[in-house]
Amino acid sequence: MFENEINELEKTITQKENLKLIKKISKQFYHDHSVEECWIMINECYQSQYFQIQEIAVLLCGYIGHLKKEAVMFLKEQVSFHQDWRVQEVLAMAFDLHCSLIGYENCIPIIKEWLSSDHPNHRRAVSEGLRVWTSRPYFKDYPQVAIQILSSYKEDESLYVRKSIGNALRDISRKHSSLIEKEISTWDLSNRKIKQVYTLAGRLIKK
Hints:
Blueprint: H1 3-12, H2 19-32, H3 35-45, H4 51-64, H5 69-77, H6 85-102, H7 108-115, H8 120-129, H9 143-151, H10 159-173, H11 177-184, H12 192-201
Helix pairs in contact: 2-4, 3-4, 4-5, 4-6, 6-8, 8-10, 9-10, 9-11, 10-11, 10-12
């Protein structure tokens, strides 16, 4: 259905990485087309050999996920297994976009669902996508909720995820240093994994 449009995109945006342009194209397509047309575009774009075109599909999933649950499942069941780290970065953006459209306070269940997944790409998509957590509505008013959610994964099996958790907590410490300091002061630093997150989370806290 959108073969011609995709062919043109492949000629114009695949010469280099240009995430700003990809975001613009995805947003415009969402505003100009129906949900079902977006869903068709998602499936056609994701079959492209170019990661830039695939990223359009990923962002469109974020836009329509609140209207079509299959789009969120597509992110979870397909995109999260993509081998290109650049696509995983866009997965995190799409997850945040989905949360923003349904309201962060309404996203607690899906946030916890993805964080409880066995797949590290699911967990990182959440911790990385919502950064800076306390700049997001709801978490801005309830920073302790964000801190509690993130801190629950301080012992994550994946270093990839632990780094994201630690950096997310560090971000929060810029405006809520006392809350972060109180949280990490209770951690068991004899645990190597926890200490890695502790070091990142407390980097900006004055000793």
